Amino acid sequence: MTASLTTTGHPLSFTQQFLRLFDQGDGQGPFSARYNIVVGWRVRGRLDVETLHQAISEVAAKHDSLNAVITRGDGVAHQSIQPPSPARLLVVDLPKASPEYRGRKAEELLTEIESGSYSLQELPHLRAVLGRFDDEDAVLALIVHHTAGDGWSMQLLIRDIVTCYARRRGHDVPEQPAPRPYHEYAAWQQENAESRSAVAARAYWREKLRGARMLSVTTDHARSAGLAKVCPVHRFTLTQELSAEALAFAKRTRSSPFMVLLAAYNVLLNRLTGATDLVIPAITSGRSQPQFQETVGPFFNFLPLRTDLTGCRTFRQVVDKTRSTCVEAYAREIPFLQIAAESPELMADAALDDKALCALQVWQFATVMEGERFGDLEVEEVRGRLFSQPNGTDIPDGALLTFDIDPSGEIYGNFAYNSNLFTESSIMSMVAEFSGILRYGVAAPDSPME
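The line above is the sequence of Condensation domain-containing protein; the predicted structure tokens follow.
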């Protein structure tokens, strides 16, 4: 591997700038060693560990976001791209287990990894753990700090790693396209900030969010109580029947699954808070530019989706209003920092002592690996995790409800939360009520909601 000279002075993307707002310099928040994304894959086939390590290091060297150090000083932050160095690969032997129990052991491994801390000072911001059941069955977990990647990035990385591995093993596998550097995306964002479309989008958000405040939920514990923070994850699964009905209803109403799930979430938050003017923080992929589809980096964006439920008596009416909100917002998506600048009071309630945001995110990747072969390996993502955990990767504040739509059509849920703000019983209660709202809504969309 040939090391290049260090390059400095690249601007931060708006996502990275936004994450810096949560950094208190106390070892917590987005720049802590616990703000990571972890994804795992079952790998079947006789695996050459040294070749795998070489493939991971080669792929890490291709992506500048994985080799970037964010420097803060003189009130201005920038990225410095460092020469590539070998990625870290930890190999562990997993407990003996019969094939039908190995899925559970794979999930336990990912849970253990997610509870760990990983130094931001060590580059690259990609590391891996290989857990081996035997010589031909293993779990490969990738760990990336959230300031260097996102969920989409993880799919790109595993695809590139197994492709590189196969090519190194002599298989005739097509090479993946060369990615555009992430720092070029950050520069493009800065240049595009004053374009005609960006100016028009800011005008839209200025009017759309006039007088708005991001909806915050009353917490179980006050921030001022100073309780210790960890980030548990409550996992649940919508039944196969409910998942199928929700996806079918989305299709019938010309909505995306996200829109239907957001509509049910809107109803839930309306019941919890009594508010009808709802501004929900939703996380999007932020990948609107085709030239950066192959780029690894933190592209995710926050969109404040404002929906007025006044006059809505049925679930179908809520879905219709939610869909209109989403279509308008998607067509005018710009970085959240730019949106917030047009609505100075938007985040005011999120800073209250007994309030916190509960964001929503839906994952539905078209590139998910489901038993695909690369050379002499078969790779399948570890999906449908069923077991809650007492401590996961960090989330900056409040709670984050994530739905993962499996290619099979099943919908899995993860509700991560700050333990110093919410109790497990409150989170479980919200999940139970959400499921009831969705079940009744898709079964009887034109009946009055209770």
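Note on the example: Confidence is low (pLDDT under 50) at residues 1-5. DSSP finds eleven helices and 17 strands in the chain.
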